Amino acid sequence: MKILDSKGKLFGKINLVDCLVVLVILAVVIAAALKLTGSSVSDLTSGSNAVTIRYEVLCPKIDPTTSDYAVTEIGKQLMNSGEMIDAYITDCVIEPHIEPVEAADGTLHYVEDTTVHDLRFTIDANVQFVGNAYSVGTQELRVGKSHIVKTVGLEVNGTILSMEEVTTNE
């Protein structure tokens, strides 16, 4: 069987012009999708920039009931924009919340506020380095940046305190 027959059909079934039109339309659709998502062909074809990042998030002034619940979320998967993402809470520590209080003489004293706690989350996330930043879901990972820790059952706001790349043999 010939690839192109006397009527200009591929394998005797598909018109060559129709095939080219379909390929051009497909290329335009793919290019538009890449433009809208901000991705590039190299982002899609190479997984070489994927790494595991371990980062800590401090969430201050959390009520005790929420703090107790947050500890039960260790091992749970994070979500972002209603979808599960490749990030997991590996630890959650309840810490006392310390407030600075100015004394009458102007000196600062640090006093524990027993009505609230601070939560320190450790999170491991498989991320890609895109746009000059690591991102987990739609949130950029940078020390000092605010971060939402959100699972199916919990959502608290905090600040990223530290982050490091985790080697695979760890």
Name its key features.
52% strand, 170 residues, 8-stranded antiparallel sheet, 21% helix, two-stranded antiparallel sheet, alpha+beta
What's the short version?
This protein is an alpha+beta fold and 170 residues long. Helix content is 21%, strand content 52%.
Write the layout of secondary structure elements.
Elements: E1 9-10, E2 14-15, H1 16-37, H2 41-45, E3 50-62, H3 64-71, E4 77-80, E5 83-102, E6 108-130, E7 133-136, E8 139-141, E9 146-150, E10 155-166
Antiparallel strand pairs: 1-2, 3-6, 3-10, 4-5, 5-6, 6-7, 7-8, 9-10
Protein name: DUF4330 domain-containing protein
InterPro entries: DUF4330 (IPR025480)
Pfam families: DUF4330
Over all CA atoms, what is the radius of gyration?
26 Å
Tally of DSSP β-strands = 10
The average pLDDT score comes to 86
Give the low-confidence spans: 42-46
Structural class assignment = alpha+beta
Number of helices: 3
Principal-axis shape equals elongated
How much of the polypeptide forms β-strand, as a percent range? over 45%
Helix content, binned percent: 10-25%
Secondary-structure element series: EEHHEHEEEEEEE
InterPro entries: DUF4330
Transmembrane segments: 12-34
Organism: Candidatus Avoscillospira avistercoris
Protein name: DUF4330 domain-containing protein
